[in-house]
Amino acid sequence: MGLTQLPPPILQRIVKYALEASDPAIVKRSLFGARSRQLTCATFEALVHDLALEDNDAILVQAEAEADSGPAAATTRLAAVITRPPLARAVAHLSVHPPPLSTLSAGRSSSTAPWEDASTALTEDADSDLASAPLPLEDLSFLLVLSKLPALTSFTWASNRLPPTTLCPALGTTARSLVAFTLDLAPSPSDAIRWDASQLSTLPTSLIRLSLSQLSIEGVRSLASAATASLPALEHLELTRTVFVDDALLEALPSLPSLRSLAIVDMHGTKLTDKGLAALMEGCNTLEVLELHRVEGKSPFAT
């Protein structure tokens, strides 16, 4: 039996392994050069299976312009996904990341004048980063792209700005099979930003793994509300760099019927006490793993 006679899912997996194990450029030339429709489709689907998107609106504008010209004009993975529904259905993992540091530092002076105050220089560098940074993804255009990806199983927002306020409802409507959601805000040259986690309870009920960082007070309340109202399949919850985690949240988590592991990491100055931990341990019968790492609360319960 030849490769082209294999079932499409198996063929795509073989192509994916080949791209990971060898020089992708060589593999792509070989597969496309075989002039097999099955191999070509499997290669395209493997290439878009994990789609990474820079938080740069110029990239999205270019992809939209290519899409307007038809599938034949697509030169990027994003444009191909937008114009070809079969490829859009092949995207399983989508991640949004900030522009490279080289983009932010372009044009910045590499030295500081001897008479220049260090704090002033740092402030000016931060202002320069903000001024030179590319425009972020336009919310409506990004959500339109998201609406074309019905087979998403994993989503990660790792940019240095907040996601669209309607991100959760959009995923709840489009990605009905989503099992993993991560919001890990990257360091920003501006002041620390915190996520309100608006409408967190509208995420798909299929969600199994949830990882959140830098929640605001509203974000912690939204998570507590989601724990009591939705997320029946959630098994793994990780919270990082969120000083507003408190006893009220831990008292709400036993409402998650499938919760198996909870990790609270890098929390300095929280209002957590033994009371909240006791409520969690006594009320969450499914919990198997509890990790408290670099957590500072009102009692010395963590290291």
Give the gist of this structure.
The chain is α/β, with parallel strands linked by helices and 303 residues long. The chain contains 13 helices and eight strands.
What do you see in this structure?
This protein has about 300 residues and is α/β, with parallel strands linked by helices. About 40% of the residues lie in helices and about 15% in strands. It contains 13 helices and 8 strands. It has helices at about 10-20, 25-35, 35-50, 55-70, 75-85, 85-90, 100-105, 120-130, 140-145, 165-175, 215-230, 245-250, 275-285; strands at about 50-55, 95, 155, 180-185, 210-215, 235-240, 260-265, 290-295. An 8-stranded parallel β-sheet has the order 1-2-3-4-5-6-7-8. Strand 5 (about 210-215), helix 11 and strand 6 (about 235-240) form a beta-alpha-beta unit. Helix 1 packs across helix 3 (about 35-50). It is globular and about 60 Å long. The termini are far apart.
Radius of gyration: 23 Å
Structural class: alpha/beta
Number of strands: 8
Helical proportion, percent range:
40-55%
Strand order of the largest sheet: 1-2-3-4-5-6-7-8
Compile the SSE list and pairings.
Blueprint: H1 8-21, H2 24-33, H3 37-48, E1 50-54, H4 57-68, H5 77-83, H6 85-88, E2 93-97, H7 101-105, H8 118-132, H9 139-146, E3 154-157, H10 167-174, E4 180-183, E5 209-213, H11 217-229, E6 236-240, H12 247-252, E7 261-267, H13 274-283, E8 289-295
Parallel strand pairs: 1-2, 2-3, 3-4, 4-5, 5-6, 6-7, 7-8
